[in-house]
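Support request, please re-run this one:
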Amino acid sequence: MTAGERIAFRMQLDPGQAETYKARHDAIWPELTALLKDAGISDYSIFLDPETNALFAVLRRTAGHGMDDLPKQEIMRRWWTFMADIMATEADGSPVSRPLLTMFHME
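Re-run finished. Output below.
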């Protein structure tokens, strides 16, 4: 088993934006991927519930992860600006994100 933890969270996509959201992530910037990996993030997936437009993200992060510093990074802020026209965002431009509680897990 990999050291660290698995976390999940929910975000909200605007109606009718699923294709755009997927296309942007299919072409994710290499420098953003590198930033996330450098922050200790791996095995990152985002799922869509098409009935509610809710996005569910699951990722693994190392014990000494740097996720808390991501909002300070210029690349992260540029990505948030790029995505802000198709999803719910906070006042600082970050996606509205709510943690999800683990109710069951099987390895």
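The chain has a mean pLDDT of 96. The two ends are 10 Å apart (CA to CA).
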